[in-house]
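Onboarding guide, step 5: your first structure request.
Type a short instruction followed by the sequence, for example:

Predict the 3D structure of this protein.
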Amino acid sequence: MIHPMKSLLVLTLASTLSATAFAQAPAAPSRIRGEIVSLNGDTLVVHRTNSDNVTIAMKSDTPVGAVKNVKLADLKAGAYVGAASVPDASGKQVAKEVLVFPEAMRGNGDGHYDWDLLPGSKMTNANVDTVVQGTSGRELTMSYKGGSKTIFVPEDAPVVTFAAATRADVVAGKKVFVIARLVEPGKYEAARVVVEKDGIAPPM
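The system replies with structure tokens like these:
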């Protein structure tokens, strides 16, 4: 028979280890979308879409990029893309934007999972297996590790790829998409910044 005090000690130790493991688990990245209010030194302030201002630490070596348009007609089989989509009334996934990854980023974020662009939206990062041209857009059959999805890309959906940008492009009034980590309540640190350039705002 296990002594009650020994049993209590085991339970307490197990609880402590579980709590420690949970505390040490890396937090999911935060995606911040909005308009730049200011960049002063290493402090970036962004007015989040339909929300409040958020302060983000942006180090001098934080990667900065932009996007440029890709013609829907140039979206070919064999490309590795990320498509944010929402289901229509029939359940078909309809793209709200498509990001064509450079070949060096093939495999980035591979899969089909929840996304926070719009309520109920999904992100599919996958290889484009086939492209079928329709009267109002293109239907992509995409495969990722463990599955595949068919996504319709309407003619008016933004299709972009990454473009070069620098810290000098991070100025007030520009639209921005920031991947950040929550350091403590209300405080973020930027991992990557994608900024509006040449009038093209990041649609992600």
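Each response can be followed by summary notes, for example: The chain has one domain: 29-204.
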